[in-house]
Amino acid sequence: MGKLASALVALVALGSVARALGAQHPLRHATDGMEMRFARSQPVLGYTLRVDSADLTSITVAIRIRGGSDTIRLALAAHPEYDDRFFRYVEDVRAETPRGAAAVTREDSALWRVIAPGGEAIVHYRIHLPAQNGPQHPAWTPYLTPTGGLVGGPHAFMYVLGANLAPMHVTLDIPASWDVATGLELTSDPRTFYAPSADVLIDSPVLVGRLRNWRFIVDGVPHRIAYWPRPDAVPFDTARFVGGVERIVRQAVGLFGRAPYRDYTFLFQDAAWGALEHANSVTLGAPSDELDKAPLGYFEEIAHEYFHSWNLVRIRPEGRGALVYKQGGQTRGLWVSEGFSMYYADVLLRRAGIPLADTTRITHLQGLMERYFFSAGAHAVSPERVSLAEYGSAPGALGDYVGSPHLQGELIGTVLDLAIRDATHDTRSLDDVMRTMLDRFSGERGFVTSDVEHVVADVCGCDMHPFFEAHVRGAFPLDFDRYLAMVGLRARVTWSPMLGDDQLPARDLRLRGWEEAGVFRLQLTNPASVWGKAGLHTGDRLTSVNGGPIGTWPALRALLGKLKIGDTVRVEVARATGAYRTTVVIAGYERPNVRIEERPGATTAQRERRTSWLAAAR
Q1: CB under 8 A, 24+ apart: contacts of 21-27
Q2: Is the pLDDT of residue 443 over 80?
Q3: Taking phi first (over 0 means left), then psi (-120 to 50 degrees means alpha), and beta for anything else, what does residue 377 get?
Q4: Pairing mode, if any, of strands 221-228 and 168-173?
Q5: Are 95 and 122 in contact (CB under 8 A)?
Q6: 3-state secondary structure of 237
Q7: pLDDT given for residue 456 in this prediction
Q8: What is the chain's mean pLDDT, rounded?
Q9: What pLDDT band is residue 15 in, cutting at 50, 70 and 90?
């Protein structure tokens, strides 16, 4: 039996097992895993991305289209988290056909229509790269220098509407001395790559330039670390850095039992900040001078973003995943996708033996609880609602509160883990929830809160409906002592004055602002602040402060920076009901202090369970 036939038999067998287990599988047919999809209704696509070393202010792209319809509609995708509105930088869109130039019309901000009789055309356009502010740039946005940069992804490649499943090849026309690192599939041509769909093309940024490379294999799966250094890069301990990344990968793969990709590429950039996950790659900023001084500080972010390969990309919340050219993807499930990934960023590092600033899980939990009690939105707005407002929502979507699904979800994951360990006598944990979620929701259907509730109930063998009603769909504060008691612990919460860097009482400056259509509006972060107590609300249009106009956030921030405790501020705002005037007296405010301690009367079983939990045992 030939290799192809053997592989097909194996894939069919795996598909039968998956159906028997009731799990979803993303491949509809065995050959989808290794061959190009075929449909006569789909066009044949090929891309060429060119970087001109003599002009690094832009990139040019050509799309070869054959077998399409007479009317071709092209769009520039919007990412659900970081919509940079890159359509603003698209220039010189033109098309040619075998019959000559084609008509190109811009239908919307990020949508173009090409009339190409016979469905054959080459579409050309240029992306003018915006100037970067400051010494570092966001790790997910395109950036070019004489030694390389980041290209591709949603900032470079338009896609053909209605042909999302059409496979395509991408050729890079870049300086000969530059290396390439990307999640796109390699071909026999080192400058040509393959994408099985538009989703994969858009989800696979390309790091190019004079790269440093390291490779390792986990469970038979190749992994690559590509690092793009500045010309003046500071030397750092690469063995410790690469070794730490590999240990994180081993722990995550061990948790789920397998990697969800054929290969994986870490795209690290010097002189960059932030990170963004992709299906089989991740872009991360990692300045070399900071890797030299404090490399351990980056492992938590690496672990969080890498864990998204399972939790967000595969285990997908309903509402995420569709390729769109206007920002969408709002979902109620980010408390799982982001929050549980935060939980495992901490857990994976502890399992890997990588030192953390929070030396113990108790220290880490104390810090999370302090943030929870300090942030009114964390315990006054439901995790579902906070998740829905996280990306793409208008400023002030939560009213006079701000919230974080990362914080809420990490704490929910923590207490659920404790509850599951208690109910199953420490034989199961949140790990079993994640594995079950992968089995049930790694296919076409994304999960909703009721799905998570059912999975947790199945794992622990207990009724979780009251918990989810109160703490996920509702905004009832978490009862930490109830769950800490399961491991023989309790928490003491006290309040003390918030202090500044000078160790003097800090001023209550919990006020922000944003500009919208030329109008400057206020945003409160806590209705219990001096600003909220004075009757101000998020959405108020600020007309004057102390009798003078304030029309921008920098202007308001500068004014706030000059205030002292005891100062009086006269504020006037406009509302639909008319003008509102108030006086704000600047005062200090308090912060919570959490100390977790032994609970009197803790049982031997609780102490043993605590030992397992503290060790982040599976």
Answers
A1: 21/439, 22/439, 22/440, 23/439, 23/440, 23/442, 23/443, 24/439, 24/440, 24/441, 24/442, 24/443, 24/444, 24/445, 25/442, 25/443, 26/442, 26/443, 26/444
A2: yes
A3: alpha
A4: unpaired
A5: yes
A6: coil
A7: 98
A8: 92
A9: very low
